[in-house]
Design brief:
Length: 113
């Protein structure tokens, strides 16, 4: 009688499971890509990064931000303070660099409403 094998089966065309473990970051990236959600995920990262921009500028931006959304690679930010809006418009290039320094090409323009 042959001895039972204790090894895991090798992946095949019928068995799409991988034989080795995949790091969680790679698995999540693959899942987002397979479901076509990469762009939406990166948009959410940019929107969540708005608070970090406020910390970098030393301003409490979240308190004065009414709405923030992305449409056609343009980030729209509606503010409740006109003086803050004027200051941010003057620093728009710097803010765009802060938002996209590690993820270039996600947005092309920044518009304050």
């Amino acid at each position: 009688m042959p001895a039972a094998s204790t090894q895991a089966p090798m992946p095949s065309a019928k068995n799409p499971r991988q034989a080795e473990a995949t790091p969680i970051g790679e698995a999540i990236a693959a899942m987002l890509k397979s479901f076509g959600l990469e762009d939406r995920y990166h948009e959410a990262e940019l929107i969540n990064g708005w608070g970090k921009v406020g910390l970098a500028l030393g301003k409490p931006l979240a308190r004065y931000t009414k709405r923030i959304f992305i449409s056609k690679r343009i980030l729209y930010i509606e503010l409740s303070s006109a003086p803050l809006k004027n200051e941010l418009v003057m620093r728009k290039t710097h803010i765009l660099e802060l938002l996209t320094h590690d993820k270039p090409g996600r947005i092309d323009e920044l518009v304050f409403l």
